[in-house]
Design goal:
two-stranded antiparallel ribbon, 27% strand, 164 residues, 5 helices, alpha+beta, seven-stranded mixed β-sheet
């Protein structure tokens, strides 16, 4: 009988622990100094670069708003690059910037070109990128960090799968 009571108590405790609710999805806007600090502290996280007047950013925002309640425990940091002063002379050139924040982002992500761009950081090192957002398939284009994305060759991964 004691074994049965012990078994029931352990089962109840396990059930209670497994039902613990995670924090709801969070999207936290940060500045470049905060991003650099997180990287210097060797943290692991995802961050997304967005900008005003970006139709793809808006489509992704709408998708997140509709589906975020299904993704408890996910945190996504965002950086608004609207005022980062990006430009390039020729199509094959890397972006340049005339702002400190823009230059800092390009130092971290030299092949940054499109918004939204989502980056996965593991122990302070950027390891992969998800570029753009396809509103029909709800995917981002996964690409390496050493060249501009080729949307025809990139692997398409569902947004939530990419950041989870």
């Amino acid at each position: 009988m004691k074994k049965l009571k012990f078994f029931l108590i352990v089962t109840m405790l396990i059930s209670m622990c497994s039902c613990t609710k995670k924090e709801p999805y969070q999207q936290i806007e940060i500045c470049m100094d905060e991003l650099k600090e997180k990287i210097e502290n060797k943290e692991s996280f995802n961050f997304m670069v967005i900008r005003d007047q970006c139709d793809f950013c808006q489509a992704l925002k709408n998708y997140i708003d509709l589906t975020s309640q299904e993704h408890d425990g996910v945190i996504l940091y965002t950086i608004d690059s609207t005022d980062f002063g990006f430009k390039r002379e020729k199509e094959e050139d890397l972006l340049t910037s005339d702002t400190e924040d823009g230059q800092a982002l390009l130092n971290l992500c030299p092949y940054f070109l499109y918004t939204p761009s989502i980056y996965t950081v593991e122990e302070g090192k950027i390891v992969t990128s998800g570029i753009g957002f396809d509103d029909l398939s709800k995917t981002v284009s996964v690409w390496d960090l050493d060249s501009f994305v080729d949307f025809n060759e990139a692997q398409q991964v569902e947004f939530w799968d990419f950041i989870s």
